[in-house]
Design goal:
Blueprint: H1 8-11, H2 17-20, H3 24-34, E1 36-39, E2 42-45, H4 46-53, H5 56-67, H6 74-95, H7 102-105, H8 108-121, H9 126-145, H10 156-159, E3 166-167, E4 170-171, H11 180-189, H12 193-204, H13 209-214, E5 220-221, E6 228-232, E7 238-242, H14 245-255, H15 275-288, H16 299-312, H17 317-324, H18 329-363
Antiparallel strand pairs: 1-2, 3-4, 5-6, 6-7
């Protein structure tokens, strides 16, 4: 984007030069980093989609915002871009304008209207709403810091329900946790080396689906004994994990002599599998295992079930937190507390039933 592309009207709202223009090197890198999404069944670059939705100023500021070192992980960058695109698409429809001057159109009351839309029409979970609002808030904070005359329209106390509160009659943050017998049934249903790999990576390694699909064959040291997996987790942190013999066997059978490229490949296209395809694998296994509500069984559910089992078996919270890759121990402990809260409540109900039965017997 060059200075010549900015309209005279925009010149009155210009930030310092560094955020109103995008250097070609930044543009090329962020285009590659953000990748593509499907739009009406066709692949489109996220950068091009964002450019079609917002005005030049918002676009240039957003690209610099997405390029900062605080968003070093590709998944984080793409997630922020997707969330900004969601808000921009809504704003275009709401105001009847495309492209939309998002940095100047969004105010406190407009964000309030968006939250009603997100809850009542999209029925997004509280975590999803807060994540999108966090992206908007971060963009505005960045813009104001670099001289754009805007104020942050997001007020989390007014716009965002607290995680753990009820929405539409259900606890939206409650990740499903399977009984260990259900996990075993899903494992038994795995019919291919890839099925077994996905299961092991989600359950035995506690990986997120976004982490699973990022693994390349080159990330695995197959000369080591046992094999060692080097993996980039959230916030760009790299870890090293040892793979147990069973996973090594699944891995070698799955690779069938291949020694580079993505670990999981789409057999139809030969390209890297995406997270949605990995979710389809766990849903298929859950159906084969006859687990109730199989479409709700995702790699995240398998991972949460593993975390819960480790805590219930007495493993130290700090160790499980590090294993799971959680930045906050309360996130790790939340899985265990939700399951045990149900058990505690059931025990109290049983005690009341017993007391009622005893009192009735004395009344005879």
């Amino acid at each position: 984007m060059s200075d010549a592309e900015l309209t005279p009207a925009m010149e009155t709202h210009l930030a310092p030069r560094d955020v109103r223009t995008v250097h070609v090197a930044v543009m090329e890198q962020i285009t590659e980093d953000l990748g593509v999404v499907k739009q009406y069944g066709e692949p489109v670059a996220r950068v091009d989609l964002l450019r079609s939705l917002v005005d030049d100023l918002t676009f240039s500021v957003a690209l610099h915002w997405l390029s900062t070192g605080r968003r070093s992980s590709l998944d984080t960058k793409r997630g922020y871009a997707d969330d900004l695109i969601k808000v921009a698409e809504w704003a275009c429809a709401h105001f009847g304008e495309r492209p939309i001057a998002l940095l100047h159109r969004l105010d406190h009351f407009t964000v309030t209207t968006w939250t009603i839309y997100a809850k009542s029409q999209k029925r997004w979970a509280v975590r999803t709403q807060r994540r999108i609002l966090s992206a908007v808030s971060s963009l505005f904070t960045y813009a104001a810091k670099h001289g754009v005359p805007v104020s942050n329209p997001v007020d989390f106390e007014e716009h965002a329900q607290q995680v753990g509160t009820s929405s539409n009659g259900r606890p939206v943050d409650a990740t499903r946790v399977l009984a260990f017998s259900e996990l075993a049934a899903i494992e038994a249903a795995a019919a291919t080396p890839e099925d077994n790999l996905v299961f092991d990576l989600a359950v035995l390694q506690g990986l997120r689906e976004s982490e699973i699909v990022k693994i390349n064959v080159e990330n695995i040291d197959r000369d080591a004994s046992p094999y060692r997996l080097k993996l980039e987790r959230k916030r760009g942190k790299w870890i090293t994990r040892e793979l147990p013999p069973r996973t090594e066997q699944y891995l070698e059978t799955h690779l069938d002599g291949r020694d580079d490229g993505p670990l999981l490949l789409d057999p139809k296209t030969g390209q890297r599998r995406n997270r949605h395809q990995v979710i389809d694998i766990t849903r298929r296994l859950a159906r084969a295992a006859k687990v109730p509500n199989p479409n709700k069984v995702t790699p995240h559910v398998l991972r949460a079930s593993a975390i819960t089992d480790l805590l219930e078996s007495g493993k130290p919270l700090q160790e499980v937190q590090k294993w799971a890759g959680h930045s906050d121990p309360s996130t790790t402990q939340g899985y265990w507390e939700r399951r045990n809260e149900v058990k505690r409540d059931a025990a109290l109900t049983s005690a009341l039933i017993a007391d009622l039965a005893e009192a009735a017997a004395h009344n005879l």
